[in-house]
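Go through this:
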Amino acid sequence: MKNLLMLSVLISSVMAAGGMGMPSFSDFDSNGDGKITQKELNDGRAKRHEQKAKEGRMLRNIQNAPSFAEFDTNGDGVISKEEFAAHQKARRGQ
């Protein structure tokens, strides 16, 4: 019973931190201007891959990573916080 409680607390804390390994908007918005450019997305992904590799963990489904255009639904050349959140919500729902 104690192990189940500990697992529940762990899962709750992971979910509160943005989901099961899903990055947050700030992980990509490196200059803090409230939007993500194509370069920031690419750089953020590279940094995330490097960090996971150092931890001895592999990223699953790297080949299925969404394209910039899949995030940038209004086609303005940047990903807004709202576009990012909508995309993450849709991915969690899969």
In short: The longest strand covers residues 35-36.
